[in-house]
Every structure is written in structure tokens, then in C-alpha cells.
């Protein structure tokens, strides 16, 4: 199964966390995100990200037809999704349902869980031309190293760059 991680960061490397943003994300960025989600047919997110969806019926409606998996020990309230405890369980869950790609939508703890377990094949990183102190570091766990090679660069709009990286496999002879 191909595992893609999608993140938007500021110039100073902070995750652009929706609930802490002072402005809405650009429409072009949201459209790109939705295209990736619908192409994969699924998305994996953490509990905090999921809780931000639960209270917004309009946002939930935009994910109609998308299989949502939440990485959490518990998810209070209405279960509009599958809830699993580990990144490996999320991937098993999606594979059992016939998905070929797993799309990791956030947040930071979910990113860290997949990265530290070496479960990410592709990174899609959007760079927003802002410097912010109200984001959070998107990789915060120490003592791991992964190598990725740049596959593609493109502009989402006139100011947001998107970089797509593929994991580099290291072969020891």
C-alpha cells in the first residue's frame, strides 16, 4: 500500500494548524487537499483533527464518500469514522477494504506516528509564504532519520509551492 502524507507548513517550518490560524487557508490549497483526499478515497487523521470535523456538518459533507480513519485511543461523540489505535492498524484497516493508497491528513501527532514507524512512502509538502509562531513543529520526535528524494515541484497558486518527495530506499550490500 502506498502511504502519502500531506502537510502544509510555513516558511519557518511550522505546521499550519487550522484551529490556530488567524486567516483561512487559501481556496487553491483546500481544493488541492480535497482532490488528493477524493483520489485516495480515504484519509487518516488524529483525534484532534477529527474533533474539529465533528462540529461542522458542511465540512463533513465535503468528505462524503471518503473513508475516514481516526488514530486514537478513543473518540468521544458520534462515530462518523473508523477508530484505530496504531498507524499499522490504520493501514491494515484500509488494505482490508481494498484501498491501494493511504492518505495521511494530519495532525502533527499522526504525522509523527507514521514517520517514526517508517510508514510513509511519499510526502506532499505545501509551503506557504508566511512566518508564523502560532503553528506547531510537524516533526517533533527525536532519534529517527528518513531519506526522501524530490520527485516534483509545482505551484498551487501564485504564492504556495508544493513539493512531492518519495522515500529513498537504502540498500546495504
TrEMBL record:
<dbReference type="InterPro" id="IPR002734">
    <property type="entry name" value="RibDG_C"/>
</dbReference>
<dbReference type="InterPro" id="IPR024072">
    <property type="entry name" value="DHFR-like_dom_sf"/>
</dbReference>
<dbReference type="GO" id="GO:0009231">
    <property type="term" value="P:riboflavin biosynthetic process"/>
</dbReference>
<feature type="domain" description="Bacterial bifunctional deaminase-reductase C-terminal">
    <location>
        <begin position="86"/>
        <end position="145"/>
    </location>
</feature>
<dbReference type="GO" id="GO:0008703">
    <property type="term" value="F:5-amino-6-(5-phosphoribosylamino)uracil reductase activity"/>
</dbReference>
<protein>
    <submittedName>
        <fullName>Dihydrofolate reductase family protein</fullName>
    </submittedName>
</protein>
<dbReference type="Pfam" id="PF01872">
    <property type="entry name" value="RibD_C"/>
</dbReference>
Amino acid at each position: 500500500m502506498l502511504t502519502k502524507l500531506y502537510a502544509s507548513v510555513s516558511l519557518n517550518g511550522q505546521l499550519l494548524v487550522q484551529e490556530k490560524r488567524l486567516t483561512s487557508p487559501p481556496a487553491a490549497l483546500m481544493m488541492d487537499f480535497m482532490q488528493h483526499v477524493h483520489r485516495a478515497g480515504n484519509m487518516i487523521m488524529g483525534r484532534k483533527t477529527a474533533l474539529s470535523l465533528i462540529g461542522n456538518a458542511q465540512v463533513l459533507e465535503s468528505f462524503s464518500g471518503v473513508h475516514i480513519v481516526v488514530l486514537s485511543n478513543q473518540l468521544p461523540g458520534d462515530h462518523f469514522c473508523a477508530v484505530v489505535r496504531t498507524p499499522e492498524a490504520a493501514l491494515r484497516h484500509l488494505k482490508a477494504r481494498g484501498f491501494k493508497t493511504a492518505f495521511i491528513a494530519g495532525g502533527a501527532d499522526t504525522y509523527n506516528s507514521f514517520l517514526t514507524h517508517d510508514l510513509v512512502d511519499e510526502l506532499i509538502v505545501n509551503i506557504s509564504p508566511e512566518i508564523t509562531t502560532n503553528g506547531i513543529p510537524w516533526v517533533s520526535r527525536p532519534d529517527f532519520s528518513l531519506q526522501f528524494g524530490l520527485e516534483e515541484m509545482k505551484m498551487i497558486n501564485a504564492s504556495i509551492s508544493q513539493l512531492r518527495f518519495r522515500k529513498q530506499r537504502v540498500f546495504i550490500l
